[in-house]
């Protein structure tokens, strides 16, 4: 094993360790809260950490298919965050007594 290969193996292990630590801290924030927007942001962070895990494992194994999986997870995570944000906005509008903004419907 050359110096470059050993450095890459060390960097992969350090990256996996740091991602594991951030995963645990983020799970704590999801469970602890204190508010719904905090939990939503923590769930978005979990998606980001999962993408990091996938990227490091893809580098470690050399399988390029992991890049496609990470892109798909990023898209799903983005859509979930947007959906949660719309939910929070409609919930907040309902609490304040306002009517939520009208939904635009496609006309035939």
Compact summary:
The protein has 108 residues and is mainly α. It is built from three helices and no strands.
Description:
- With 108 residues, this protein is mainly alpha-helical.
- 81% of the residues lie in helices and 0% in strands.
- The protein contains three helices and no strands.
- Helix 1 packs antiparallel against helix 2 (36-61) and helix 2 packs antiparallel against helix 3.
- The longest helix is centred in the last third of the chain and has 31 residues, at 65-95.
- The radius of gyration is 19 Å and the shape is elongated.
- The mean pLDDT is 89.
The ordered H/E elements are HHH
Q: What is the gyration radius calculated from CA atoms?
A: 19 Å
Structural class by helix and strand composition: mainly alpha
DSSP strand tally: 0
Give the averaged pLDDT, no decimals: 89
**Shape estimate:** elongated
Distance between the termini: 65 Å
Approximate helicity band? over 70%
Strand content: under 5%
- Biggest sheet architecture: none
What are the low-pLDDT stretches, counting only 5+ consecutive residues below 50? none
Number of helices: 3
Compile the SSE list and pairings.
Layout: H1 3-32, H2 36-61, H3 65-95
Helix pairs in contact: 1-2, 2-3
Keywords:
108 residues, mainly alpha, 81% helix, elongated
